[in-house]
Design brief:
Distance between the termini: 66 Å
Largest sheet: none
Helix content: 55-70%
Order of helices and strands: HHHHHHHH
Structural class: mainly alpha
Strand content: under 5%
């Protein structure tokens, strides 16, 4: 399937992966209303799920709030405008280009175009956070460092917990639990030999 045909996938005429399995699909059968309906449903899913997961944590929240913030630095204002226009463009492209891959693996797939904005998202989130820190009257200057360290720790906590936490292991109890099964098989073999 060519990238231009992704707009026709997941419409009423080509549900699921039918377009990819078609040898010579007749795309003229797809009506404009079907494509518009697909775009509306894709945009609904994007606004409901994908936009809130954008950035994956606190900086994503600072980014979304930072889109409406006031900035004195012209570079930050230009970055915000670029990210806002890019977000609108990529959101429409992602909503229209959805295929069955988006439903099979919703978080990590090749159709997730918003992930391209994550570096800029972090930059604007940090700019918004720094602007907040400058506006607040804190009791002592070192408290800013403490708040920044807490934000970084809170952002890195899911990664650190995923790396250092003990995993429960791939054992499903019952019917198979290796220590018990090996003890039973050893005792049954002893019984047979005696």
């Amino acid at each position: 399937m060519s990238p231009g045909q992704a707009v026709y996938a997941e419409t009423a005429r080509f549900p699921g992966d039918r377009l990819e399995r078609s040898f010579q699909p007749d795309l003229s059968l797809v009506e404009t209303g079907d494509v518009i309906q697909k775009g509306v449903e894709g945009m609904r899913d994007l606004l409901r799920d994908d936009l809130l997961r954008l950035g994956g944590g606190w900086f994503g929240a600072f980014f979304l709030v930072g889109l409406i913030g006031q900035y004195r630095e012209p570079g930050v204002r230009r970055l915000r405008l670029f990210l806002l226009l890019s977000l609108a463009t990529l959101a429409v492209a992602q909503a229209m280009g959805r295929t069955h891959l988006s439903t099979t693996t919703p978080t990590v797939n090749t159709e997730n175009l918003l992930v391209l904005l994550v570096p800029g998202l972090f930059l604007l989130g940090v700019a918004f956070y720094q602007g907040l820190l400058e506006r607040f009257e804190l009791p002592f200057p070192e408290f800013r460092h403490f708040l920044s360290a807490m934000l970084v720790a809170g952002t890195a906590a899911p990664l650190l917990l995923g790396v250092f936490a003990r995993s429960p292991g791939p054992v499903v109890y019952p019917p198979y639990y290796p220590p018990i099964s090996s003890n039973r098989s050893a005792s049954s073999s002893r019984r047979r030999s005696s």
